[in-house]
Write a structure and sequence with these properties.
Glutaredoxin, five-stranded mixed beta sheet, 10 helices, disordered C terminus
Length: about 270
């Protein structure tokens, strides 16, 4: 995930409650998985198809957490351009590339044309995960929320490469610090980007280096209020955070995918 896209997405969690506005009068069309309200009458059917393909990539990853995703259609507000999106009902910050809303009344995404595949996948992952945690009146921890969204946005329209271990990290935070932090609006851009990459790497390790069912169990324990260290021990058998960190550090990549390791990287 690029630093720019991380910055575009990280505060989308704070989208204000929507109010009835011009969007209520937009034409709406249903796809297999979404009800899309589009501002522009001559909407791009290619954008609709792209969004459905993003769903098809996310569904195998998330269905254990949100089985309803195959039956219920999520609302998408598709603005004609960025300017219209910024002036719309959600009033996002100027740098926002998209946002999600999960409330008692509505589950929705707000995007604009042309649809950015990575932003759409990132925000849709947030929507599904927040809906899962909201069932127990909780919110996902930032490292899990952003790490999963960053991981899945990179695989939105392509088959996951089993060799891919995610981003190469230069100076990772201690895991205990990652698990209790999140980027703030005034944080340096470089720090924000590094935080997102490490969250991505840690979640990818949990998701790809262990049996598939374990990740859903981990999310379930955290949703019940269990702390990350206890949940990691209960699900994966790591004695403590230090043991988990050692396993993750040994697994994470030293070079980008496809680049051979040097002697110093072994």
């Amino acid at each position: 995930m690029s630093v720019l896209r991380a910055l575009l997405c990280w505060l989308s969690l704070g989208a204000p409650a929507a109010r009835a506005d011009a969007e209520a009068s937009w034409a709406s069309q249903e796809t297999l998985h979404f009800a899309i309200s589009h501002e522009r009458l001559g909407f791009s059917r290619g954008d609709h198809n792209r969004i459905d393909r993003i769903y098809e990539a996310l569904q195998p990853e998330l269905w254990r957490l949100v089985p309803w995703m195959s039956q219920e259609k999520t609302r998408i507000y598709l603005y004609k351009d960025q300017e219209s999106y910024l002036q719309g009902r959600f009033k996002p910050p100027a740098w926002s590339g998209g946002l999600f809303l999960v409330s008692a009344e509505e589950k929705a995404l707000a995007l604009y044309e042309p649809v950015d595949t990575e932003v759409a996948a990132h925000e849709l992952t947030h929507l599904y995960l927040h809906t899962y945690f909201r069932e127990k009146e909780r919110s996902p921890p930032p490292w899990l929320d952003e790490g999963l969204a960053a991981m899945l946005q990179n695989e939105a329209l392509g088959l996951p490469d089993p060799r891919d271990k995610g981003p190469v990290l230069s100076s990772p935070l201690p895991v205990k610090d990652l698990l209790r932090s999140r980027p703030e609006s005034d944080a340096p851009r470089a720090w924000v980007g590094a935080w997102y990459q490490q969250a991505h790497s840690v979640v990818r390790f949990l998701r790809r280096a262990h049996i598939e069912e374990s990740f859903a169990e981990l999310c379930g324990r955290i949703r019940k209020g269990e702390d990350a260290g206890s949940a990691l021990k209960g699900v994966y058998g790591y004695a403590d955070l230090a043991a988990f960190e050692a396993a993750w550090l040994a697994w994470r990549p030293r070079k980008p995918l496809g680049q051979p390791l040097g002697l110093d990287d072994q």
